[in-house]
Amino acid sequence: MSGHNQGGSRSGRQLDVIVVPALLVIPRYYAASQVPAVYGELAGATHFTPAGDGGGFRGAITAWFRYWLAGDQQARGVFFGPGCTLCADPAWSKVLRNAKALEV
């Protein structure tokens, strides 16, 4: 998709004690007010959950890139719009979308 600003995606791990989301990740999410930003916290995930095959983050990460890089409208629905599938997925304990993301 040309002619737009790519958004910011931040993901946290609910049980991460190495990179504490509240101290390091969430403040960066709130600072990203100039672009669409989505923060997702995968329930029960640790710092090492994404190692190897991406763990429970793989689907969301793939959808993010498919939307922003390929314009995939099905992938858009994972993060944006009233039917945001990530928002309703019980695997994610916390999902935040900033004002710009709500406009997408």
Structural class: alpha+beta
Helical element count? Answer: 5
Q: How much is the average pLDDT?
A: 85
Radius of gyration based on Cα positions: 13 Å
Q: What percent of residues are in strands? A: 15-25%
The largest beta-sheet arranges its strands as 1-2-3
The low-pLDDT segments are 1-6
How far apart are the first and last residues' alpha carbons, in Å? 13 Å
- Main β-sheet description: 3 strands, mixed
- Based on DSSP secondary structure assignment, what is the total number of beta strands? 3
Query: What's the shape?
Result: globular
What are the secondary-structure elements, in order, as H or E? EHEHHHEH
The helix content, as a percent range, equals 25-40%
Descriptive report:
This protein has 104 residues and is α+β, with helices and mostly antiparallel strands. It is built from five helices and three strands. Residues 1-6 have low confidence and may be disordered. Helix 2 crosses helix 3. The chain has helices spanning 21-31, 58-70, 73-79, 85-88, 99-103, and strands at residues 8-13, 37-42, 92-97. A three-stranded mixed beta sheet has the order 1-2-3. The longest helix is centred in the middle third of the chain and has 13 residues, at 58-70. Strand 1, helix 1 (21-31) and strand 2 form a beta-alpha-beta unit. The radius of gyration is 13 Å and the shape is globular.
